[in-house]
Model the fold of this input.
Amino acid sequence: MNPPTPAIVTQNAVSPLPRWALVLLCIAYVVPGFVGRDPWKSADVTAFGYMLELAHGRTPWLNPLLGGMAPETEGLLPYWLGAWAIQLAPQWVSAEVAVRLPFALLLVVTLVATWYAVYYLARSPGAQPVAFAFGGEANPPDYARAIADGGLLALIACLGLAQLSHEVTSYLVQLSCTALIFFAVAAMPHRTVAPAVALAAGMVGLTLAGAPALAALLGLGSMVVVVYAPGSQTDHRLRWALALGAITMAAALIAWGLDLWRWRIVDSGSGGKEWQSLARLLLWFGWPAWPLALWTLWRWRKQIISRQGHRHLLLPLWFSAVSIAATITTQPADRALLLGLPALAALAAFALPTLRRSVGALIDWFTLLFFSVSALAIWVIWIAMQTGVPAKPAANVAKLAPGFVPQFSALALVVALAATVGWCSLVWWRAARNRAPIWKSLVLPASGAALGWLLLMTLWLPLLDYARSYRPQVRSVMAALGPSPGCVQTVGLNRAQVAALQYHGGLSLQRAGLQDECDWLVADIASWPPSERMVNVARWEARATIPRPTDKNDHLLVFHRAGPAR
Done:
């Protein structure tokens, strides 16, 4: 016997979130971070460096190198996307803008796929609310739209999504492909063509982005869900299970053919994982979706353990479990956890029809205070940077970012003011008596996250660029090298430093060797002095030690050849 659903929802509670408001929120979240900034340390600028090498034909497409070093991640698809974007973009579009266009589109795909995945999960028979004796319960399409709105709001509200989803790295590609697979399996009982295309694109894309093991796990687990929880009266479970198996096998063969299989499990006993840091990451990264997801697991626990499988719970639970397991056992942990956010948001959405009014009020008040105080702090520090008043925040900025010169942008100010006014209007609306829609508890968290990200990417963008970009350090290196330095040898530079020197400085770099003919050498301070078999140290004269202004542990040494080149 199917246990009763805990969702009690009236038709009045599923009034739709205005489409214009949802689209405007997504635009306010997606666009900032892709516009107007430099490539940041270190994964962002590293990936950008490989894309430039491929686009300019300086390295093979199947074996890209940057400063003689292969990528740390085996997936080639992200580098191909960026390189193709550079090649196809008109000349008046800079390379850093061109590479961000396909990645901005990938973030949009993630948001859209998550909305539709939650929508189709909410259409499942086991997800429907209680039917009232005299009618008045929410009808399935409106209920599904309201839950899907809540799922999208929960995803945008996740604090860990903001920065990683705006970098041109393999992790954003993996996120979008995971969302496509999630949508495909969720929509299988209701559609045919769209799920098939999304499934193929997601599985192959996730594999080519360097995560074949995750693709295999998600595919195999989805096969079990499809068989155990078909999700509709039209039972095509066998057909879809076979399709999942075939595509999973094809993706595994592609990974084998391209030599993408790697052992990435970290041994926790050897100190590879710091459990306190991991706990903090799990706490803040998925906030506020994970508390709501736990509430869903509690309120819907009878459906989870019932013999009749419920796709709307088992599918996001499996995707979340795979992501959390990868977070615990692999590095980098935050990138692995990123892939589980769409499923975590789906679980959070199904908590909405079960929340008590007091819990919703607690979420509203906490969110209101947290994001209002955060926005106020951003504004106060920006005013201090521009005017010197208040003096203490201005002094703190000068201490943390020595040499930074504040810049004023009228456009950034107008956008930030408009976003702040919008936040104040939303708070006023939420404080009114319109308490019916079930998605109301996630409006403030999602809008607050978008507000904070937008303010950072407008008011604080010059400061963040100065702190997280290599441009200030490269500018000092170029001043030490002088005009027309010719070729430059390097010792101990990592991929991000090589990419920054080549892009910001336009330098022709060569790895150091005893027979090189360059007059200049740039080395990382941690790698100097090198082995005598690599560099004859006596033939090089130190000219400058150049730090990154915001990192005391990042110094570059500039040397000039003391004797004639040979």
Notes: The longest helix spans residues 357-387. The first strand starts at residue 487 and ends at 491.
